[in-house]
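Checklist before submission:
- one chain only
- standard amino acids only
- sequence pasted in full

Submission:
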Amino acid sequence: MADEASSAQLNLLSTPVEPSIVTTKTSAPETLLILDTETSGLDPQEHQCLEVGAILFSVPEREVLVQQSFLLPVESNSAEAINHIPASATRRHQPWKEGLRYLQALMDAADLLVAHHAAFDRQWFGQGRLPEARAPWLCTMEDIRWPAELQLRSRPSVRDLALAHGVPVWAVHRALADCVYIAEVFRRREDLEQLLEWGMEPRVLMRAQVSYDERHLARSAGFRWNDPVQGAWTRRLSAREAQDLEFPVIALDRDEPLAS
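Returned file contents:
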């Protein structure tokens, strides 16, 4: 998210982060479009999106405004064992073209697009049949720092996030169901505006400055080893988040070697 702001912040954070750095002030959006996709594989260049789920959600009212879900026709589905959607079902007659037009209207009405693992979902928009996404994205797995009392992993699954908020889980790997879980989590959060504001802060990829004996500190803080940079504990952080750590971090140059 916020790539331009992140690039600017990268220049600021080319040295270990100091408390004097000023974070960018953001304001919470009022209308969210919660999105999820099911696809025939992992590569947008080789595979296709075959289902879209969307929920237009009002932040001030904590209410669902619109729900939409529809299939897109595909010839084959290599991921059927995961999403349980037969390719033949996607080709049954139904108004999917009208569904796409309505999806575009929902996207135009949203201040912010939200997805769990947004890095995956956003790559399908503007590819194939899906419209281009013009609004900014927020990831409920990567960008929102859920309160410690929920005892979630640093990158929680949508299932674990739902259960931690008392939301029943009745289906996984169907697009609308995953959108419903996120909407129900948002309905339960009195601090939703604050979580969204912090989640929208510009972030850059940072390396933890820890010794081998201190690696547990990086792991506990959600840093990942060798992912995406070889030989480093890294995580995307805002300046505010970096200041709250128990150890120093440094922003990475864009030409750092990536793990294979």
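Reviewer check: The CA atoms of residues 59 and 216 lie 37 Å apart.
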